[in-house]
Amino acid sequence: MKINQVMxxxxxxxxxxxxxxxxxxxxxxxIGRICRSYGVEAECFVLPTSIFITVTGxxxxxxxxxxxxxxxxxxxxxxxxxxxxxxxIQESPIPYEEAMETLEKIEREKxxxxxxxxxxxxxxxxxxxxxxxxTVQDAVVAxxxxxxxxxxxxKVSRIGVFKFFEYFVxxxxxxxxxxxxxxxxxxxNIYRIIISSIMILLPGVSTTNALKDALHGxxxxxxxxxxxxxFTVVSVTAGVAIVxxxxxxxx
Length: 251
Prior knowledge:
GO molecular function: transmembrane transporter activity
Strand order of the largest sheet: 1-2-3
Number of domains: 2
Largest sheet: 3 strands, antiparallel
Mean pLDDT: 87
Radius of gyration: 22 Å
Keywords: Cell membrane, Membrane, Transmembrane, Transmembrane helix
GO biological process, one term: succinate transport
Number of strands: 3
Pfam family, one: ThrE
Subcellular location: Cell membrane
Shape: elongated
Number of helices: 10
Distance between the termini: 69 Å
Helix content: 55-70%
Structural class: mainly alpha
Strand content: 5-15%
């Protein structure tokens, strides 16, 4: 297989991993494993938004590829499928066309259906409300608000504005709907509802990946991940704080 084809396969697999919430060290390891499977030694450097691969051609000239990752989400099923793909290649390399077709199929898969993800978002808010000693009534309201937050986040993300604005708007909705609910039903606990409904927005995967990268020595990527997590939390809390500062006097 040609070196540029090996690089195409490796960069495609790395892109899918990075775009779906994989750790940096896992992306680098997978790219290196794929290249070695085809007899190519590669140097790989990955950042949360970019992939850099350099190999040495048959004529001794270095060949480099840079791939920019602009959109990222969390879909661990895609990560697992690419991991299985790379291990399968390591055991028995497959032709270029088959490898690219497999990766494109993984990339096209959209994971769980929107209705199921929406329901799980509501259930998450419901369960956390009970965990925080809220009443069943609080949990039901948090369930509804959790789903509204998820819908609004999906709608805002499709508009194409910057990522942290999605979380800011979600914070506004979480606090605003909670204030309205407590105004209508005064027996509800506004703070438990807000805290529970925004749990689906907290960057648990980003924080965990940042810690894993730090343990593997990827300090730059770890700092990037922690900064992203902090900005996410600040965006959500800013939206909540603005509404509460204006709305608590209305209750």
